[in-house]
Amino acid sequence: MSPGFQGRRRSSGPALPPGQYLTEDFPVLSAGPTPKVPLDTWEFVLGAESGAEFRWSWPEFTGLPQETPTVDIHCVTRWSKLGTSWQGVSLDALLDGVDTAARYALVHSYGGYTTNLPLDDLRGGRAWVVHTYDGAPLPAAHGGPARLLVPHLYLWKSAKWVRGIRLLVDDQPGFWETAGYHDYGDPWREQRYQGD
């Protein structure tokens, strides 16, 4: 090295996906009204492409093995929040024992919202149905009583007020995907809209 050469100065800030900015708060964005979902009627239904269904009531769901992921989340509206803490059930646990040849999943929410994902993105410790945020029950405004959490994709893929997942052989776009959002939604590749 030449005398005095020190190389490039490294950024001391966090590594964010392109086009994102860091926020300390937790913005609330929804496409419609917040549904009221009583815990005594809440149910999560996993439907296989064969027609087989697996159901959990709230007590059954919260009685499953729990995990506590701490992850960064990224919204398509360009904010990122780092080190968020959650508690919930891994999709690996929910899919355990389900015989399926499906390659895709369509997530359904109370209130009618849907979003599509490749099934592989819900496996391998990459996705959870969470009911606790930062040590407290998940507020309704953020998707409570339970929401999907898929932190490696833009947050619209982490459907709020989740009530079930249908496994599919062929992909089927969800709410935002039919409105022009990207089918996959990788924040590191800035996949916000179709064609990105």
From TrEMBL:
Residues 1-20 are annotated as: Disordered. Pfam families: Oxidored_molyb. InterPro entries: OxRdtase_Mopterin-bd_dom, OxRdtase_Mopterin-bd_sf. Residues 32-176 form the Oxidoreductase molybdopterin-binding domain. It comes from the Bacteria. PANTHER family: OXIDOREDUCTASE MOLYBDOPTERIN-BINDING DOMAIN-CONTAINING PROTEIN (PTHR43032:SF4), PROTEIN-METHIONINE-SULFOXIDE REDUCTASE (PTHR43032). This is Sulfoxide reductase catalytic subunit YedY. It comes from Micromonospora coxensis.
